[in-house]
Amino acid sequence: MQSKVRILYVGDIMGEVGLRLIEKELSGLRHKHAISMVIAQSENVTDGRGCSPADFNRLKKAGIDFCTGGNWSLWQKDLFPILSDPAQPIIRPANYPDGTPGLGYKYIDSGFGKILVISLLGKTVGRDSQLKLKNPLITIDEILDAQKSVDKVGTVVNFHGDYSSEKVVIGQYLNGRVSAVIGDHWHVPTADARILSAGTAHITDVGMVGALNASLGVKTALIIDRWRNDKVNRNLLEEDKPWQFNGLIFDVDISSGKALSVEQLNILYD
Ligand SMILES: [Fe+2]
Fold first, then answer.
1. Ligand 1 centroid vs 185 CA: distance in angstroms?
2. Among 142, 170, 185, 238, fewest CB within 10 Å belongs to which?
3. Interval between CA 56 and ligand 1 midpoint (Å)
4. What CATH number is given to the structural domain containing 147?
5. DSSP secondary-structure letter at 218?
6. pTM of this prediction?
7. Looking at the 3D structure of the chain, how many domains does it have?
């Protein structure tokens, strides 16, 4: 009997380019790497702002089993009923204040047992939020404590944050308590994927899916104009190739919930 579940976590899927790349490439990658379950950051799917119900359905159809959330998660208001439904595999950050639409953690059946998936927003990126964020470390302690008696084979924590120190420290903080802590939001993959000393897979930032020659997916010229000339302009997403597909593959031992292996996936499509 198989004793591990192999999970692919996909970095921020940026707009239509990212979504189309997922639709084209994900099933082949699933097969090639013998992936059991795919979790993806969905907060930038719909033109960079949130995830519409229609795009959520496209992600599921393309083979994404579960969607995590970030600072754009609450932008598409018609997603709220889906975010609030425990049976729908999509979450928003868990440390928004009580009463915020949606749920910050949900379970998914991996085929080997239940996996708990949680999203947290870092304090730095959350500083500009109109909602007063709860402390992410206290929030995760409360969630893990409340869920400790639930029978599960693993726990995956997504940390959507800005400061490198926050994103490193959250891994250390949860080392040995969860299967993986995966940072995102930068859209730039870091080269530090590893298994921490007590068996937690960690990466500071997993990267993104979308255009490479861009400012995190946005057309570079717009950002330079804003930066160099104080121009007020709107983000438009880059569509031209090359495109990048960044993710993290990790195996979880279903008897211990600890990570057995970790491997970065950084693919370019010219
Ligand atoms: Fe973000």
1. 4
2. 142
3. 17
4. 3.60.21.10
5. B
6. 0.97
7. 1
